[in-house]
Amino acid sequence: MPLYEYQCHKCGKRFERIQKVSAAPVTECPYCTGEVHRLLGVPALQFKGSGWYVTDYGKGKGRDDARHEGSGDTAKDSPTPAAAGDGSTPEE
């Protein structure tokens, strides 16, 4: 069940409630009985199972990780027009 955060218009206090998604939102402050509104929050994500960590990459697949270490991007080795040394920009 998600955790919702509310703030009171009257006293300004914030509080949290664990509610079902289908439940009606809280309308009354538990401290002063004033009107409240639900705040927007960042949802918490929890990744479970294998494959979410660097240490899980390639497990049981029979891969040789040393084989893949040298296969980096070759474009980073080629000079860009600004890094060519003449200081000019490329013409369009």
List keywords for this structure.
92 residues, mainly beta, three-stranded antiparallel beta sheet, 1 helix, 3 strands
SSE layout:
Layout (H helix, E strand, L loop, with lengths): L2 E6 L5 E5 L17 E3 L26 H5 L23
Antiparallel strand pairs: 1-2, 1-3
Mean pLDDT: 74
The assigned structural class equals mainly beta
Radius of gyration: 27 Å
Low-confidence stretches: none
The end-to-end distance, rounded to whole angstroms, is 56 Å
Total number of beta strands? 3
* Biggest sheet details: 3 strands, antiparallel
**Count of helical stretches:** 1
What fraction of the residues are assigned to beta strands by DSSP? 15-25%
Helix content: under 10%
* Major sheet strand order: 2-1-3
Order of helical and strand elements? EEEH
Give an overview of the whole structure.
It is a single chain. The protein is mainly beta. It has a domain at 3-38. Helix content is 5%, strand content 15%. It is built from one helix and three strands. A three-stranded antiparallel beta sheet has the order 2-1-3, with no helix packed on it. The mean pLDDT is 74.
